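Re-run with default settings, no changes from the original entry. Doing this only to confirm the output is reproducible before filing.
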Amino acid sequence: MNWSFLLSALFTLLPLVAFAQDNLVANGDMEQLTPEGSAPAVWAAAGDAKSVTQKLSPDAGRQGGHSLRLDCTAIVQDNPASHAMICQMGQVGVERGKWYKVSLWAKQTGLDDVPISIALSNTQGWANLGLSSSLQIGPDWEQFDLTFQATADCRETTRFQIWFTSPGTLWLDDVSFRETAPERSGPTLIWPAEGRRNLLPNAGFEVGTDGWGSTGDFPTRGWALPMNALFGEVVTEGARQGSRCFRMALTAENLPVDYFDYFGMTRQPAKSLLVGSIGWMPTTPGASYCLSAWIRASRDDVPVRLQVNQFRASVLSRQVQVGRDWQRFQFVVKPTSQWCYVAAGPVLDQPGALPVTVWMDGLQFEAGEQPTDNTARDAVEAGLSTSRDGNVFMAGQPVALNLAVSNASADPAKVEVTVTDFTDQTVSRKRFQVPAGTALWRQSVDPGLSAKGFYRAHLSVNGQEKPRGLRFAVIPRYQDKDSIFGVNHAYPWPHLLRECVSAGILWVRDWSVKWQDVQPTAEAPFDFTETDYQIDRPISFGQQVLTLLPFPSANWSSSAPEEVKVGPNYPEIRQRQAFAPRSDAEFSRWVAETARHYRGRTTWYQVLNEPVYTDYSLPRSRGYTGKDYGRLVKVFAKAAREADPDCRILAGIGGWPSSVEAMFRDMFDQGALDAIDAVDVHTYPGLTPPEATERGLTVLRDLMQQHGKVKPIWLTEHGYYSDDDFEQTPIRRGGFADPLPSERVQAEFSMRFNVILLANGVERIFYHAGTCPGLNADNTEGVFFEYGGAPRKIYTAVAAFADLFRPGVQPLGEWDWGKPAKAYLFRSDDRLILATWVRNSRTRGQVNWTDERIVARDLMGNDLPARSVQLTTAPVFLVARGMTPSELEQSLKHVP
C-alpha cells in the first residue's frame, strides 16, 4: 500500500474538513442540493410572494460543480418585503464583540445599477447584528470580503440574507462566514513617540496654528457637534518660549455660540474653550505622563483647565487658577488608553468670566511625573496654512499657501510642498532649503494653479512627509441670490455658512418652529424669540430658509391617548407631538401665526416631516394614512395663505416614491396637490448608484399626472457620504451614512444623482445634514466639510455644479446612447447643457465634435480644450451656445 500517497491525500483534505467545520454558513460551496435537485440545500428564497416573482435554482459553479442562482423576473416595490432574497435561517450564530469575516464569489446580469445588500439580522425584533452593507457586483465572477464585529449574541433566530430590489439574476458560490481576528481599533493620525521627549507637535506655536484646533463644553442637545475650528490666534508679542505664543481673547460678542434647530432649539455659548492638539500621541496605560504649559491671563484668578483626552476612555482634567504673569502649570496623569491628545483653555461657566484674554506657550506632554525643560518635538518643524475659511479660494484670485519652518538643527532643512488634485495626481511641486539654526522661516507658496478644483498640499521635511496634508479648494464664486442647493439644518458655525454661500448652497431647512416650542401651553402667547435666532442667522449670511413645521401637535394640543407620556429623552420628548392635533382651529392658528410672523423673511413652508411612514408625525403604526396627511395639508395651506398670500407650500410623504407609492396616492386622493406648490421627497441611497433611483421619480410623476397636476419636486433630505481621512478605525458601516469607497466616488455619485434629479422635475436639492466633526472626531453626515471647514471633494463638485445649473434650468429629456452611457439634455438661459457619463468603470465611451460652439466642462468646473472627451464614471458637461437641440445632437458623435 502506498502510505505516502494516502498521507499526502489526507493532508490535502484537511483544509477542506476545517473549512466545513468552521464555516458558519451551511453548504457554502453549493454542492449539496435538495432531494429533488431543484436548489442548493439549506438556502431559501425570501420575499413577498404577491409583489416579487423569483426562483432559486442550481447552476454551474465558478470552477465546476454548482453555484446558487436566484432569478427575479418581476418586482413591485410596495412594502418592506418587496425584494428578491437568498437567506439561511438560524444557521449563523455570532457572539457579541467577536469579529467575523464574510467571503463570497458573485456575479450578476441585469443588475448593473442595483446594489446587492447583505446583512445578518435577528428575526426577533429585526435588529441588525453588525453586518449591514452593499456590494456592487459585475457580470463576471468576483470575490467579495466583508469584516464586521457582532453587536449581540444570537444563534437560533438569525437570518443571514443577501437581496436586491430589481429584476435580474444573481449567482453566488463559495460563501464562507468565519470568526476572524479583530480589526485594528484606534486613531489613524498618530504622532510617533520614538526618540521624542515632548510628544506634542508644534508645542510652542512657532510654525503658526499647524496641528492645533479648538474644543469646548456646550450644553448641546442633539447631534450638532461643538467647535469646528480653532478659536484664537498666534501672536509674536510677549511670547514666553521662542518667538510666538497663542492668544485667546474672549468677549461676550465673540464667544462661540452653538446653534441647533432640533431636537430642542440650542443657542448656547461655550462654557469652556480649549485649544487642543490635532492627532493622537501614543501612551502606555498605567504609566505616568505630565502635561505642562506656560499660561498667563488678562487678570488674576482666571480658571483654566488642563485636559488629557483619552481614546475611547474618560477625559482627565485639572483646573488651575491663572494670573497676570507667566507661570508653568502641570498635570500628571496615568492614562488607561493607548492614545491621548491634550487641550488647555479658560473655563467660562461663572458670572463675570468675560471679557478675558489668555495666553499659552511652551506646552509639553512627556513621560514622567515632572516637567522637564521645554523642547520642541522635532528639531525641524514645519506647517502649512491659509488665510481663507476652510482653505477655500475663489477662481481668478491668487492661491497662496503659508509655509512656516523652524529649524533648530545643525544642518539645512530640505522642505518640499507637493500639490495633488481631485484625481490625486501631482500638479505642483516646490522645493525650499531652510538654513540651520533658523528660529522662524516663512514663505508664501504659489502652487501655480490655473484650474478650479479640490487640492491637497503635502508637506515633507528632509524626505519625511507629514500625514494627510492640507486640503484646499479653488471654486467659482457664486454670486446669484438663489440656487438649487440647500442643506438640512443650518451649520452651527459662521465659517461653514460662509463657505456654503461661496459654493452656491443657499438654502437651509429649519426645524425650529415646533408648536411645543413657540406655544408650550394652550394659554401661552406665541413666542418666536428663539426661533428668530435660528432663522435670522442663515438669512444674515445670504441664505434662504425653508421653514419646516415638523410635528402636527404640541404636547398639550395632541390627540394622543392619555397613556402616551412625554419622556425626558429623545425620542420620548416628541412622541405626543406625533399625533394629529385635537383641533383644526388650534392647528390653523399655529400655522397662521408662524406665516404672519415670518412674512417677508421666509416664503416657503413645509407641512410636517416624513409623515405616515415614520414615527415623526401621523405614524402609520397608530393608524394614520396618507389620507389623514392630505387632509391636514389642505388645512395648513389655507391657514398659511390667509396669513401670507405670497407664501409657498411644500408637502409630501418624505420617502422615496417607489417605496411609499400608496401613501402618496392616498395623499393626492385627498386633493393635496391642489393646495401645494411643490412635492417633498427624501432618500438616502447609501451605496446604491444613482441610476438605480430614477424609477422613484417616474412613479411620482405618473401619480401626479393621474391626479391632473404635475408639481415641482423638492428633495429636502439626502446624501452620499465618504471620507478619505477617517479619524478612527474600524470605520462605522451601515446606516444611512454608510460611506462609499472614497470621496471621489462620493462626488461622482452625487453629481450624477443631481443630473438625474433635475432631469425628472426636481427643483431644489438639500443635503443632510448641517453637522460637522469635532476635534479628532469623525462625522461623515456633515457631507461637505472636515474639521475646520476643510473641503471634501464633493464640496468642489457641488460648487461647480451650482455655477453651471442655475434655478430655472429646463430638462429636455434623456438621449439614448446605449445602456452603458447616460446622457441628459438641459437648457439654462442661452445655453444647452448635455450631461453624460458611463455607469461603471468597466465600460468606456467617447464623444467627438468639431463645432467650436461646443465646450466640454469637467466635474470641477474647468473648460476642456479638446473637442473630444472620454466618458468615465465622472460626469462631463458639454455646453453649447447658439444651437438648437437637434443641431447639438447632429454635431456630437458618440462612440461606445
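The CA atoms of residues 454 and 705 lie 42 Å apart. The longest helix spans residues 3-22.
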